[in-house]
Amino acid sequence: MDSQAPSKPDRRSFLKRAGIGSLALSPLPGLLAATPAGARGRAAGFNFTAISQAGTIGSVVHAVNMAGSGTVKKDDVEGGGHFQHYDLASAPPRTIIAAGAWRAKRLVSFDPIGTWGVITAGVLVMQIQLRQTIPSRAVVAATLEVVCNVGSAGLETGKPEGFTLTVPGAPFGPFVPIEAGITVFTTIAAND
Predict the structure, then answer these.
(1) Cα–Cα distance for residue pair 185/177, rounded to 1 Å
(2) I want to staple 173 with a disulfide (CB 3.0 to 4.6 A). Which of 55, 131, 135, 136 is the partner?
(3) Going residue by residue through the chain (192 aa), what tens digit of pLDDT does each one get?
């Protein structure tokens, strides 16, 4: 018997092999569809939960936890979720800078690149409103880009999985994906 423990795969490799959470799908014949979600005029659903990181100012490392869900149609997006902006360098419980809910306001673009079963790979860009509840009741306009790659189908957008949140004028710059989270676009929208 070998005394060496098997190597533990890293999270990114696991998620790619699992087809971004695989959603318990097995590779059955006929699951690879040729037409991406949204290209048939039907709505596509989106779900994500991830952590992104922005720049460091002084000793503060800006990061944000964000989650959301919704529906993308040909010329429209509906949805929302929550966010929590915090100092990644602070000791737990980490210092919260701002937190609240977000709401989709306008679809900028949705570029699906292919579908595997009910999962679609692509890039969604939307204008959103961040509605803070901590530390104040401020409403801030922002741009949110959500990226879904489907490794099990070989569908890669060329961008990292996760989200990029850009708040105009923020001194720390945009929040960009780090290796923590999952995104899914699906051909099954909430209203299907």
Answers:
(1) 17
(2) 55
(3) 433 433 334 444 434 433 433 333 333 333 333 344 444 456 899 999 999 999 999 999 999 999 999 999 989 999 999 999 999 999 999 999 999 999 999 999 999 999 999 999 999 999 999 999 999 999 999 999 999 999 999 999 999 999 999 999 999 999 999 987 899 999 986 555
Measuring CA to CA, which residue among 97, 126, 130 is closest to residue 111?
126
**DSSP per-residue string spanning 128-182:** EEEEEEES---EEEEEEEEEE-BGGGTB--SS-SEEEEE-TT-TT--BEEEEEEE
